[in-house]
Amino acid sequence: MPRFIAVHTAPFTEEQLKAAAKEALPRGVSWKLTYCDFADNKFFCEWEAPNKETIEQRFKARNTPFDAVYPVRLFNVAKAKFES
Kind and range of the H or E element at 58? Predict the structure, then answer.
């Protein structure tokens, strides 16, 4: 499944993230993890989805602000290789 990193600049709270994590996702879409910088309102979220448009549509439908969605590949440093 293709992976993506969504970048958000928004004043999300811990409670908002916890509530969002409980929402149902469309079939074939998975929110994997989020790195949070609450001090600077920056959030970096890993997603799996068929394409980036699916993720962008979800954000727009829920009025979730986002800066960009990037297609990414995971590089495992310990193994010195890309994972599929």
Answer: helix 52-61
Q: Are 45 and 29 in contact (CB under 8 A)?
A: no
Question: In Å, how far are 31, 38, 49, 69 from 28, measured between CA atoms?
Answer: 10, 29, 6, 17
pTM, to two decimals: 0.93
37 Cβ neighbours under 8 A, 6+ residues apart: 43
The answer to whether residues 46 and 35 touch, using CB atoms and an 8 Å cutoff, is no
CA-based nearest residue to 20, from 5, 33, 2: 33
Paired tokens of 46: 């890993």
In this predicted model, what pLDDT tens digit does every residue of 52-79 receive, in sequence order? 999 999 999 999 999 999 999 999 999 9
Three-state DSSP class for residue 61: helix
